[in-house]
Amino acid sequence: MTDATLPSPEPGERLEQDVESAVLAAAATAVDAAGEAVDIVPLDSPRRLLLVHAHPDDETIGTGATMAKYAAENVLVTLVTCTLGEEGEVLVPEIAHLAADRDDGLGPHRAGELAAAMEALRISDSRYLGGMGRWRDSGMMGTPANERPDCFWQADFDEAVRELVAVMREVRPQVVITYDENGGYGHPDHIQAHRVTVAAFEASGDPAYAPQLGERWQPSKLYWTAVSKSMLQAGIDLLKQSGETNFFGVDSADDLPFGVSDEVITTEVDASDHLDAKVAAMRAHKSQIELDGPFFALSNNVGQRAFGREHYILVRGERGPGSGPSGREDDLFAGVEHA
Ligand SMILES: [Zn+2]
User: Fold this and answer.
1) Which of 85, 198, 231, 338 is the least buried, fewest Cβ under 10 Å from its Cβ?
2) Domain count of the chain?
3) CA of 138 to the centre of ligand 1 (A)
4) What does the pLDDT average to over 252-275?
5) Alpha-carbon span 133 to 108, nearest angstrom
6) How far is the CA of 58 from the centre of ligand 1 (A)?
7) Longest CA span, the chain
8) Can you give the pTM of this predicted structure?
9) Has residue 28 got a pLDDT over 50?
10) Is residue 21 part of a domain?
11) 39 within domain boundaries
């Protein structure tokens, strides 16, 4: 999420674990458990899911359980992260010096955290748009970081789209996930991830578009991530009752910059069996997600009910058959023919 426009959680006890900075080679190819590069043969997996996220940790907070669930079901899950999150707030005092306004070393550190999170979720195909470090975190809207020529907000749009089309034509996902037009909560990198993904979704299937990038591939479905407002409110209420903490200091989900009305949610993935993997991945993002912060409080108190269920809005493609009284899809691949 990267120092959101959210009210700051109360400072409390900090992590005591050593935080090691792992600098990894750009993950253009997947690595297996032993760290050896492995070739991905997309068509070995009949179902393929592509997620486009802005910063390391967004994938885990918003879609971690979904990723773990589908990976466990032998779906090829490909994560494309657009920046290294260099402008993020460092929540661990021991590495506060990595912050952008000090040593500016947070990017490689977060790449290490992301790699550890992918291990926890058992995702083998994690990449950076244009290669690691191609585009820098743009910082929160209205900050000078937005103006840097190397930031994602200032990216050459066509270049970014081409990079993503190349990934789409290589891994051939039937299902693509990114944020809505507001980027979920207004961060410029989230908005840019949205714009680039929509454009790539359209271009990838166009045979006239950049044929040198590979054979055309039209994904079947495009989803926005969504935080259900009712579930958010239930979480806020439960945390208040428990007296343990409050969620970003608010009483109402209406006071948070994210959260969407339940009527517009088309799809609910119940990945509560994979909540442990999601929590482990959250722990891997040590510099960004405090163990005593609101996300862990939520997962501890309402984890199975709220945190293992992730929500989406279908915006392109045919809605598959629903299930249960809500009629929502319970599978991102519902109605999709596998190739
Ligand atoms: Zn983010």
Assistant:
1) 338
2) 1
3) 10
4) 91
5) 9
6) 5
7) 59
8) 0.87
9) no
10) no
11) no
